[in-house]
Fold:
Amino acid sequence: MIKEEPKIPRREFLETCSRKIPGWLVIWATFEADQILLAQEESKYDPTQHNYAMGIDIHKCIGCGRCADACKKENQVPAEPVFFRTWVERYVIPTEGETRVDSPNGGIDGFPELKGEKDILRTFFVPKLCNHCANPPCVQVCPVGATFISQDGVVLVDETYCVGCRYCIQACPYGARYLHPTKKVADKCTFCYHRLTKGLLPACVEVCPTQARVFGEVGKGSSPLRRFLRFNDVTVLKPSLNTEPKVYYAGADGEVR
Amino acid sequence: MTGLPGISGYIYPNEFELQWGLLIVVYPYLTGLVAGAFILASLERVFNVKVLQPVYRLALLTALSFLIVAPLPLLAHLGHPERSYEMFLTPHTQSAMAMFGFVYAWYLMVVLLLEIWFDYRKSIVIWSKEKKGLSKYLYKLLTLGATDLSEKSLLFDNKIGKIITLIGIPSAFLLHGYVGFIFGSVKANPWWSSVLMPIVFLFSAIVSGISLVLLIYLVTALVRWKQLNMACVNRLAELLLYALIVDFSLELLDFIQRLYESEESIAILSQMISNRLFISLIVSQIILGSVIPMLAIVLARFGKIPDEMRRMFYFAAAILVQVGIFSTRWNVVIGGQLFSKSFRGLTVYKIELLGQEGLLMAGLLLAMPFVILYILSKILPPWSEAELKVSAS
Structure:
């Protein structure tokens, strides 16, 4: 038998170790070990330790539509302007008469200028997405249980299981679901679940230039959402339907629905 | 989504495409006919309305023909029809829709097939002896080996038939009331969400079933060149009138309640009725499908006119009722999706001609039950035995 030469010579290995191990120890001391592992290794992600939710500050939203754009790119949402996991609405409240709402291409290309309209009382933008309800009607009606609440409080669709009956789309009061035109299954916002399990933020939150979207967890003191809920008067959409949404709006007008 | 064709006001972007189209209109229309025809048949059996005897078997076969086709529009509409069996294997018990397979299977297997078999058993045994060639073997197969024609066994057939009908009536109520519940329980949709929905569905089912059996009876008698049993036809028309009155009152009650309560959605719903559903709701469902048939039946049944004329009136009324009931289904299914859940805008429904959910497919599915009924009536003639003997001699 011929003894194989190690790929890294012993001396070099020991030298590297002596240089790097102290650095690792510093990191180890700075953070909790399990936190690092949780963030780095998906297999060690424990969904029971989370309950995700989102806060949206209407006052901060400038209607740039970066969130809707990022969402489409991150999640390969079909490009047509009739499929959105998240979109931005513009509300124009005149001094008299009906409130006008628009959302051209979900706000991705911005909004047309309001020209020559003098009777405007207020305008504001409202980002919309799946509310990840704690009492979701879409989950209730799914005949095969393909849509469900994950252990970490995210409403998801199992696309290998969905039969495409579209009952969930009918049951959603917020218009947050659509039928994927090629997969022929119900599709919706996942809070970028594939990112969450890696310790990353949802794409829409990541790109928001004004931090109008705050992502966090319900019931966790260290979560940014706690601060958002602490310092804002928040409301949810269509509270009378008892869906218990987990997307909280700060500064949402009564006209928002 | 202003700027897209046909849209007025604001709708959520995902609402641009209607999720449930023409096939989902056809589905409650078909199941309604099943339930209605069966309830009519059970009147004869359970409540001993002897005058309806000539249409008893016809009503049963009609119910079966339509029931066989009823799940097909649903299947054709699914994004993944090949996964539909999951509803049986892993039904989500909280879902109203998950129960469809079970309600359907129960109704088909336990109620309709059994009742028809017990009712026809004596005839099948006789045919299996009289007929020749291949049909002899078909009837032999249909006897399922039970060839005993002793008085005791015939009494047993009758008794079991009655028990099945007794189970069948609540089952028929269940079948279509349940379809109503699928819509009525969607709280997100104010046009659907109503406790009256299952009841309205049920009564409209009875209306449609009676009028369909009446139609088929009138037409088959004409085609077969047979004398109509006018007492039976009159009674059918009367029943149709009563059912129409109850159905119309319930729908009116629903309408008045909505207007009076005047909830958040009332503005957009009124807009929808006057802009999008005027023809199908006001003209087709209410005037053509309810008011005119009621007047026609009252006139024909209680006016002093010849039987020929009477039949014409009944025929016209029954046709109009079918148009009206189809419009009712349309207004529920399509109407419920024409307004935005933001209550700020209306969209349009564009029917496609070809394609899996197109007009052609719907037409095919609506024609299929009649083809099945024709074949069934050849195998199991629903005409009264005296009549059959006359034609044989």
Notes: Residues 21-185+351-385 of chain B form one domain.
